[in-house]
Specification:
461 residues, globular
């Protein structure tokens, strides 16, 4: 049974009667299947999804119960292919995934590059948390990075980014390897690679420069989603790449009908985020998006609101196609409720103690939410937590991400003077060091602090 369905799936030959018969018979005889039979069967059903309209719920349920009991009998490829099959077929199986997650770290040396890639892809796709598994893979990959194909590397960084697992050494190994083999990577791999790095809040000059140099030469290979993901990644990571943006800007109008509404929203946000100075691209993208506004998510509409504000500042006399939807875009943006952190409250308390009276969470006329502000003077202090930063793997420094830079530029264009206090400058500092930092930020706003106030000690709330 296992070999039959495996063969038909491998040959991409539709065989609904066969698959239906196996789907009915296998659950009753699951104990007769060895681990290789189990793997081959679920792999076949997952692979044949596109060609077979067969319901196999009972089969997958039987495997989900049986496999964990015999997990030690599975080889590395068997475990990888089994969880891959469940993830591909969108079948939940917590006991199975937990059993694999516990087994993999003990046997990570048995996994080849494809096994590792398929396994973490499956966990990320199935939204199953497995920190110990991801850490085991992250520790193994740098030693064996040369064994991975471009697709396997792209799938892995996508998985780590999607699962929100921090793994700087893993990302650094990939960032070093990709430029050496850049010609092996398809456009889709390159786009997914930089998207994953930006989503994981890590960047590498070496990697992004290599991709930036490659894209203009191969722009015809990039589909609409690839282009959208690429410019979004560069804008988010705050990486300057003029030739890349020029190449995409020239290509977009010719292929506008290939873009999804989400892709257009991400693309137009990226161009506004890097301060693109030619309005024609915004007009063309705005015209295409205008008919799809109702299909967009709140996050995408929030992006478009920032673009609309950018257009107002850059070209105030220009009729932007999204102006008719401005109110709904603004509502989406302002509906993102602010969640003040303890860090923000501590900074606010210290600033008040040092004499700067301010409003906590002030909403501007344009809808921006400012952490600490003096509205009458248009002075603001933004208290930036870790999500405002990108880790530069080359230097090890935390740099402000593109979204934060974009909003700061917009605030300044509306007349605000803005200072920033970073979580990384505040944490693990003494009270006196924090007071020095606050004094420096107030000085940026043109507010002097008296020496006796600076020298005094206070108890933090």
């Amino acid at each position: 049974m296992a070999n039959a369905v495996w063969a038909f799936a491998k040959a991409s030959v539709a065989a609904d009667p066969l698959f239906k018969a196996v789907a009915e018979e296998a659950p009753h005889r699951i104990r007769e299947f060895n681990t290789q039979n189990i793997t081959n069967t679920v792999w076949a059903f997952a692979t044949a999804v596109a060609t077979a309209s067969v319901a196999a719920d009972l089969l997958f349920k039987a495997v989900a119960v049986e496999a964990p009991r015999r997990i030690s009998e599975f080889n590395a490829q068997g475990m990888a292919n089994t969880v891959w099959a469940f993830a591909t077929a969108s079948v939940a199986a917590d006991p199975l995934f937990k059993a694999v997650a516990a087994e993999v770290p003990r046997r990570i040396g048995e996994f080849n590059a494809q096994d590792m890639s398929n396994t973490i892809w499956a966990f990320a796709t199935a939204s199953v948390a497995a920190d110990s598994l991801f850490k085991a893979v992250a520790a193994e990959v740098p030693r064996r990075i040369g064994e991975f194909t471009p697709q396997e590397m792209a799938n892995m960084v996508w998985a780590f980014a999607t699962a929100r697992v921090a793994a700087n050494q893993f990302f650094k190994a990939v960032a070093t390897e990709v430029p050496r083999r850049i010609n092996e990577f398809k456009a889709r791999h390159l786009a997914n690679m930089v998207w994953a790095f930006a989503t994981a809040s890590v960047a590498s000059d070496q990697l992004f420069k290599a991709v930036a140099a490659e894209v203009p030469c191969r722009i015809g290979e990039f589909n609409a989603q690839d282009m959208a993901n690429t410019v979004w990644a560069f804008a988010t990571a705050s990486v300057v790449a003029d030739s890349l943006f020029k190449a995409v800007a020239a290509e977009v109008p010719r292929r506008m009908d290939e873009f999804s509404a989400q892709g257009m929203a991400n693309t137009v946000w990226a161009f506004a985020g890097v301060g693109w100075e030619q309005h024609q691209l915004f007009i063309e993208l705005g015209s295409s998006i205008a008919t799809h506004v109702g299909t967009l998510k709140g996050s995408e509409m929030s992006q478009l609101y920032l673009v609309a504000l950018y257009m107002q500042v850059q070209w105030p006399n220009l009729d932007f196609p999204l102006s008719a939807s401005l109110q709904s875009l603004r509502s989406a943006y302002t509906n993102c409720a602010a969640r003040p952190s303890q860090f923000q409250r501590d900074v606010s308390t210290m600033m008040e103690q040092m004499g700067w009276v301010h409003t906590f969470e002030h909403k501007t006329a344009e809808g921006f939410s400012l952490d600490l502000a003096q509205p009458e003077l248009k002075l603001a202090v933004e208290v930036d937590g870790p999500t405002h930063y990108i880790k530069d793997l080359s230097s090890g420094e935390n740099v402000v991400n593109g979204a934060t830079r974009f909003i700061t530029r917009q605030l300044r264009s509306f007349g605000w003077t803005v200072a920033h206090i970073s979580f990384f400058d505040w944490g693990h500092k003494s009270d006196s060091e924090r007071r020095q930092l606050v004094a420096a930020k107030l000085d940026e706003l043109g507010i002097p602090v008296k020496d006796n106030v600076l020298a005094s000690t206070t108890t933090r709330s």
